[in-house]
Amino acid sequence: MKKLLLFVCLFTATLVANAQEATERTLQLVSDNIEIPVGKQYRMYINEYSEAIYQYMQNNPRIAVEFTSDDSQIVESGGAWFRGKKEGTTTMHMEIYGAVNAWGDPDYSQKLDEATFTVTVKNAVAVPIPKLNTSWGISREEMITKATEEYGYDNYKETYFNMNPGATADEMAMFEIFKTDMFEFPLVFSVFNDENQMWAYQFMIVNYERAWNQDNIYDAALVKILQNNGYTLYGTDEQGRPALYNPTTLTNVTFDNFIVQGQFMMYCTLEYEEENPLDPNAIQNVSGNIPTVEINTVGTTVEINTDSYEGESVELYNTSGQLVGKTIVKGGKASVDANQHMPVIVKMGKTKSVKVML
To answer: Strand pairing of 63-69 and 75-77?
Structure first.
């Protein structure tokens, strides 16, 4: 009887501890006080969900957010983004809802939580970027040690995948994820192959204009920083986003759009690439009209809009060369779901393949 009583007591204590852990989950933003430059569009990454959001995510794939400003003359909001209009300080309100579709439109009948933060708008704001790591082939253990001890980042993998319960075991094995506590660049991802060798490294960007100045690509802050670190801007992708290469470290740099936490984010991806795109022999001249192809990702789905390629096949391959999804371009659109977050190769008709991260 004493043994049974002891077991019951221990079991009860465990339930109480788990309940306390659950109730202690509160909504946590990257920062409660931020500085942004005039005229730039921003988002806010959520470091930790509250219990209400955790419970919602168990049965739903995504959330939606909306921002409102106490002073729209200083900071204007456009739903899932906010932008500084003139110098000053004001309070922003972030409301989190359930999402009604893949694009993250809010379900106003399901408000999950809210938070406030202070925004100071300045004429210009300079920020450090995450460490650029191109130690291709480095082991998982070495990367974790470097990121946490040398860079001072927090190991964020467990929290990240708790916040994304739909992730598969393969996805969790592929990544190591670190939290930087930088408002503009909150997360760093290291990507590993089956031998636990790092082959790609990427970081999140909450202000895409740091990387992509549509008026003059050379004015983008991240392009300048990369050029100062030995990278050469050799072209752009289908959407005009920059592509750079460092022949010394055999590193290719690309930028991709993602919808994260119901917000439009961008990732800078550095990956090992032996083929040098700066080699004149690798450049092929293109004549005639170049078809427009726009590739975006929504969750684990690749969305394509194009003014050509009607009836052409769209195929997704993983990095091992296995076909993971296929469809046909109809009405200038195509949508393929890979069903998991991972790097994929997008092949459309006879065009050059494009690698994206899901």
So the answer is: unpaired
Note whether 46 and 27 are within 8 A (CB): yes
165-192 b/e (C-beta count within 10 Å ≥ 16 → b): ebbeeebbebbbbbbbebbbbbbbbbbb
**pLDDT for 13:** 43
Least confident of 6-20, 295-309, 325-339: 6-20
Side chain identity at 135, as an amino acid letter? S
Q: What's residue 3's pLDDT? A: 41
Residue 157's contacts (CB-CB under 8 Å, 6 or more residues apart) are 172, 175, 176, 177
The strand order across the sheet containing 82-84 reads: 41-42, 82-84, 75-77
Contact 92, 82 (CB under 8 A): yes
In contact, 188 and 177? CB cutoff 8 Å:
yes
Q: Residue 318 pLDDT more than 80?
A: no
Q: What does the pLDDT look like over 68-105, one tens digit per residue?
A: 999 999 999 999 999 999 999 999 999 999 998 766 78
For 136, list phi and psi in degrees, rounded to 5: -60, 135
pLDDT for position 351? 60
Adjacent-strand bridge partners of 34: 119
Average pLDDT of the residues of the chain: 86
Q: How far apart are CA 39 and CA 36, in angstroms?
A: 9
